[in-house]
Amino acid sequence: MTEAADLDLPVFDYSAPDLVGEVYHRRLAETAAKGWLAQGPFSYVVLDREAGEFFLRSRAMAFPGREIAELFAVPDGRLREHIDANIINQNGERHRRLRALIGPAFTPRAANRARPAMRAFLDELWKPGATSCDFVPEIARPYPALTIAAVLGAPKQDVPRLHEWAHWVQRQFDIRALSEDLPLVEKAAAEMHEYVADLLAVRRAAPEDDLLSTLLAAEDEGDRLTLEECVHLVLNVMGGGIDTTQAQLSHALNLFAGHPDQWALLAAEPGLVGRAVDEVLRFEPITPFTARICVEPVEHRGVRFPAGAIVAVCAERANREEGEEFDITAEREHRPLTFGAGVHYCLGANLARAELEEALTFLAPRMPGLAVDGPVRFGGVEGIYGIESLPLTWSPSPLGS
């Protein structure tokens, strides 16, 4: 058995400032060609699917949120409380309890109930007669924020604040933001906590048909969520359900703009939308690296990782083992690792899929001849890999008028 620290591993710097777009994909492919494991700035990097699945599913692994907070000296306060309470940082019985209580609120059926609202928001954001836009600020950014507000039962006028808070709170997973913008992340966490607590107090007094009321009423064999647990779960939904969908939808349109035959096919055959969403998730995952920490020594493929070692599972390389071509008609053997795997598989995956399906179904027939109309500005890959600006152009369409 070889100790991981004794291996002569290739180096992959996932914090490099130029690691975006095709440079990012090329560098990952070159590193993966040297083996399944690399050395990153703070962790080992796992570069194939089988090993990635192993580490994501192993009960000897946990999400290192608290360790990251220690590493970047996150002080006591609302952000530290949120990190401690985040469901991804829970394990064992506490994690099973929370999933059992809130699971019914995140089923495919629950997500489907929100589809009419999604369609209404897309119709509201669409500008009839337009043939160009910067897709990120005009559609990708407001759409998931409007959807999450509707699902939660938050007032529509609060959507800009929710988006701003979610943007910063989600940066708790971004090592660059924790290094450079920690006060902004802390401020957003404190303001968001106060807002959600007030909103839950209103719903406790006057329940409605929304997620807030569902969480307050959640019960499993006599067990109930505490008010503080409800607050943190709502923070999880807001923080994890806005920037992520915004990023994935932006990458979807960028991909389709680069593959016009696929876009035309989707417009002609909207029944392909489920497979199209799967292909977008596979080909350009917005969670390129998912961290796990060894809570005890772990052995895999003749390598021993000590307790405390952190690994970053690379969804991009794992997903692309099934092909380097973007093809919405292809039948893939495995589910993408974009939403993770194992007990911490993304709780909001069904809602995110529904949002992406509705958006692509709406947009494909209204944006024929889709093309990129200027420089695309990418975000970094350390946390959520997003797009900050995506100028698009398209031809007039009867549906778009």
Question: Can you put this structure into words, describing what you see?
Answer:
Keywords: Heme, Iron, Metal-binding, Monooxygenase, Oxidoreductase. InterPro entries: Cyt_P450, Cyt_P450_B, Cyt_P450_CS, Cyt_P450_sf. One of its GO terms (molecular function) is oxidoreductase activity, acting on paired donors, with incorporation or reduction of molecular oxygen. Pfam families: p450. Belongs to the cytochrome P450 family. This protein is of the alpha+beta class. The protein has one domain: Cytochrome p450 (Orthogonal Bundle). Helices cover 50% and strands 11% of the residues. It contains 19 helices and 15 strands. Strands 2-3-11-8-4 form a five-stranded mixed beta sheet. It has a three-stranded mixed beta sheet with strand order 1-10-9, with no helix packed on it. A hairpin with a 4-residue loop joins β2 and β3. α9 packs antiparallel against α14. The longest helix has 24 residues. The protein is globular and about 65 Å long. The model has no long low-confidence stretch (mean pLDDT 91).
- Give the rounded overall mean pLDDT: 91
Estimated radius of gyration: 21 Å
| Count of individual helical segments | 19
Helix % is 40-55%
CATH fold descriptor: Cytochrome p450
> Would you count the extended β strands for me?
15
Give the biggest sheet: 5 strands, mixed
Q: If classified by CATH, what would the architecture be?
A: Orthogonal Bundle
Domains (count): 1
Topology:
Blueprint: E1 2-3, H1 21-32, E2 37-39, E3 44-46, H2 49-57, E4 61-62, H3 65-71, H4 78-85, H5 92-102, H6 108-113, H7 115-125, E5 132-134, H8 135-140, H9 142-152, H10 159-169, H11 175-180, H12 182-205, H13 211-217, E6 219-220, E7 223-224, H14 227-241, H15 243-258, H16 260-268, H17 273-283, E8 289-294, E9 298-300, E10 303-305, E11 310-314, H18 315-320, H19 349-363, E12 371-372, E13 377-378, E14 387-389, E15 391-393
Parallel strand pairs: 1-10, 3-11
Antiparallel strand pairs: 2-3, 4-8, 5-15, 6-7, 8-11, 9-10, 12-15, 13-14
Pfam families: p450
GO molecular function: heme binding; iron ion binding; monooxygenase activity; oxidoreductase activity, acting on paired donors, with incorporation or reduction of molecular oxygen
InterPro entries: Cyt_P450, Cyt_P450_B, Cyt_P450_CS, Cyt_P450_sf
